[in-house]
């Protein structure tokens, strides 16, 4: 442990090192005018009385706390408390947490597959990641995790809670969850797995509508999206695109910029403002645009956060896409990871995001152009008799019999092809009303728009 007689000088030197020679504690009458001036200026920056209070509290914990705690641990606690008191996203990343952050950014880590935040001392689920233990077990965005392995989470920091949820693949953990519409806590037992987050998933839906699901913004997300768009435009017509950012917690800023750049060829994508000039960044679109004229619908919800909101906000401001769904999460702050050693770092909120039209995302989120709450599609089947069903109805004089037969045959073949295509996505559309609405909107646009020329045909 740090000797008691050395503790006060070390802590006091935090406020005095720049103004005084080593060992001097005050500016006495023998100090030069320059020293006094420097001491006065520094005292305005670092409150010496509060430093003395910190020293006193530190020493009382060392001497009177019920259990002995070494000095290094106490300093770590002090740093953690200082950062977590700033906002929910600033944190002191020690070895395990620093490694977890690097693994998450790379898209591979061990755990439950759940993005969380802190709210009123509880762990709030921002979103479960697709095809992970959390998503398969039924954990939902907006759930509050109350206990982990029967231990309450109240009092834990966010980093500590995340550390408990991480673990070796195959190991199990129990969770108790408070859900808004449930009277009692819900219990879950999840088996940890190696989480490999597939950043971009694509599917061609009926009507030549492309569906792109981005689960998280990683280093190669932009390149994967552009590759899929280029393949579709080279293989055939692409009448529209659904960009699904629901329950996407964000990720790498550069990846979000690359995604927007795939749809616009000029103008601001996003910019940041902070106190430090180095935290002020501005990103603009380039001419490298692979889908500049394809109609786009972006799906968002309350689980869409950070980088997802940057993409939705930029495309909305440029009037490049219609935003459909519900209001997004509202995380519009920038966290900079500042390494301290090879195994530790500080994650510090250093700026705010702004959309091209100078809108701050922070605590506001993106409001969709078309509000669509999530539900299942429940079609009501109706049967109407038509004129052609009536016995002895008059024929249509503008359609010749032979032409009518050929037309019927052609329509039959077309209907069969469309039926095979629609059968592939009908199940998903029936379960997902927001996706159904987005698909319907794009089908309408493609009908009213002129036929698009295959990109490979020039």
UniProtKB/TrEMBL annotation:
Record's keyword terms, sorted: Hydrolase, Protease, Serine protease
Boundaries of every PDZ domain copy: 98-166
Enzyme Commission no: 3.4.21.102
Statement: the UniProt record of this protein carries the keyword Hydrolase: yes
Enzyme class: hydrolase
Gene Ontology CC terms, in alphabetical order: outer membrane-bounded periplasmic space
SMART domains, alphabetized: PDZ, TSPc
Signal peptide: none
Region (Disordered): 386-426
Presence of the UniProt keyword Lipid biosynthesis in the record: no
GO biological process: proteolysis; signal transduction
Alphabetical list of InterPro entries matching this protein: ClpP/crotonase-like_dom_sf (IPR029045), CtpA/B_N (IPR055210), PDZ (IPR001478), PDZ_sf (IPR036034), Peptidase_S41A (IPR004447), Tail-specific_protease (IPR005151)
GO molecular function: serine-type endopeptidase activity
Family listed: Belongs to the peptidase S41A family.
Annotated PANTHER family: CARBOXY-TERMINAL PROCESSING PROTEASE CTPA (PTHR32060:SF30), TAIL-SPECIFIC PROTEASE (PTHR32060)
Listed name of the protein: Carboxyl-terminal protease
Organism: hydrothermal vent metagenome
């Amino acid at each position: 442990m740090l000797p008691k007689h050395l503790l006060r000088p070390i802590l006091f030197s935090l406020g005095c090192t720049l103004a005084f020679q080593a060992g001097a504690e005050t500016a006495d009458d023998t100090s030069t005018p320059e020293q006094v001036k420097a001491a006065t200026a520094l005292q305005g920056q670092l409150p010496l009385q509060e430093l003395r209070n910190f020293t006193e509290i530190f020493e009382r914990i060392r001497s009177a706390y019920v259990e002995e705690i070494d000095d290094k641990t106490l300093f770590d606690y002090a740093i953690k408390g200082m950062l977590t008191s700033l906002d929910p996203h600033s944190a002191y990343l020690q070895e395990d947490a620093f490694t977890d952050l690097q693994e998450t950014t790379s898209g591979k880590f061990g755990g439950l597959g759940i993005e969380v935040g802190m709210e009123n001392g509880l762990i709030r689920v921002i979103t479960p990641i697709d095809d992970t233990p959390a998503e398969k077990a039924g954990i939902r965005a907006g759930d509050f995790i109350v206990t982990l392995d029967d231990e309450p989470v109240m009092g834990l920091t966010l980093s500590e809670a995340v550390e408990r949820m991480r673990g070796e693949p195959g190991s199990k953990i129990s969770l108790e969850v408070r859900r808004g519409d449930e009277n009692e806590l819900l219990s879950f037992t999840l088996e940890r797995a190696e989480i490999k987050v597939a950043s971009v998933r694509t599917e061609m839906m009926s009507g030549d509508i492309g569906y792109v699901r981005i689960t998280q913004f990683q280093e190669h997300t932009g390149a994967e999206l552009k590759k899929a768009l280029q393949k579709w435009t080279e293989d055939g017509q692409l009448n529209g695109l659904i960009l699904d950012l629901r329950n996407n917690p964000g990720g790498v800023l550069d990846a979000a910029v690359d995604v927007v750049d795939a749809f616009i060829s000029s103008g601001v994508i996003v910019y940041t403002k902070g106190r430090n000039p180095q935290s002020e960044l501005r990103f603009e679109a380039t001419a490298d645009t692979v889908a500049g004229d394809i109609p786009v619908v972006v799906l968002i919800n309350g689980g869409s956060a950070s980088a997802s909101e940057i993409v939705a906000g930029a495309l909305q401001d440029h009037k490049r896409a219609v935003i459909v769904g519900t209001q997004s999460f509202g995380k519009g702050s920038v966290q900079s990871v500042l390494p301290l050693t090879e195994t530790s770092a500080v994650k510090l909120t250093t700026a705010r995001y702004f959309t091209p039209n100078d809108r701050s995302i922070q605590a506001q989120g993106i409001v969709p152009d078309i509000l669509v709450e999530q539900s299942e599609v429940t079609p009501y089947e109706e049967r109407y008799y038509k004129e052609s069903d009536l016995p002895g109805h008059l024929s249509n004089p503008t359609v010749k019999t032979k032409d009518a037969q050929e037309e019927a045959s052609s329509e039959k073949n077309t209907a069969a092809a469309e039926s095979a295509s629609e059968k592939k996505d009908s199940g998903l559309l029936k379960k997902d009303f927001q996706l159904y609405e987005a698909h319907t909107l794009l089908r309408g646009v493609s009908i009213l728009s002129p036929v698009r020329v295959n990109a490979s045909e020039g």
